[in-house]
Amino acid sequence: MKKIFIVIIFISSIVCQSKASLFLSGNDSILIDSPDENIGTIYTRDSATVTIANCQSVSIMAINSSKINITGGRVSKVTVDDDSILNITGGIVDSIDSISNMIINGGTVNLNNYSHLAGHATMLSGTLGGNLNMGVNGQFLIQGGNVSSNFFIGGNSHLILSGNNFSLGGIALDLGELDLDMLVDKGALTSYRYGDYFILEGDLNGTLADGNDININVRLASVYSFFNTMNVIIIPEPFSLCLLGFGSLITIKKIN
To answer: Which is it for strands 96-98 and 74-80: parallel, antiparallel or unpaired?
Structure first.
C-alpha cells in the first residue's frame, strides 16, 4: 500500500489527473492545477502540503500540522485540525471546519450553514459571506475585505474587528469588549430564547482597517443566561498593524 501511495503522489505532484481520493503524509506535497478536475477528497497528515490552483471541485481534510494553500479553483469543503494551517489567497471555498489556524487574504469564501470555527483565524482581504458558527475557543480577527457574513458566537469564542466608527443597533461602540448589558438595555441587542440557548442578536456596522465598510449580523449564544465567555471585541486601526500572527490574538482578549 505504501509503494502504491508513493507512486500516486509522484505522478500527481505537478498536476493531479485522478478522480479517486488521495492520501498524503510525511513531507508529501501535491499541486492541483487543472480546470477540468473534479476530485473526491484529499486527506493529509504529518506536515503534508496541498496547493489548489485550479479545479472544478475538491474536498480537503487536513490534520497533524498539514498546510493547505488555496490560490484558485473551487473547494467544496476544507477541514483543518491539529495545528494545520489553511491559507486562502484566491479561488472559491464553500465550507470551512477549522479547529486550527486560518488566514484569508483573497478569494471568495461562501460559508454554508455547517461552517465552523474553533481555532484562530485572520482575514486581511477577500470576500466572506454566508454563516459562520464560532465555538469552543474560536477567535476571528477581521482587518479588511468584503464581509457580509452572519456570525453565531458561542463557547469561549471572540469576533475581533479592527477599524473605526463601529455601531450596533445605532449605538456607537467603544474599544474593547461590547457592554452587552448596556446594549440590551438600549435595545441595540435583542434577547430571546431559542431551544436550549439564550440568544443576544443585533446588526453591527463600521469601517474596517482597510477602509471597507462592514455590515454583519451577530448572535451570541449561551446555554446559560449569562454571556461572560463570548463577545465581540473592537480594536483601533493602528493597533491592528502588529496583529499579523495568530498568537497575538490571545493578547487582546479581555480578562474578566
So the answer is: parallel
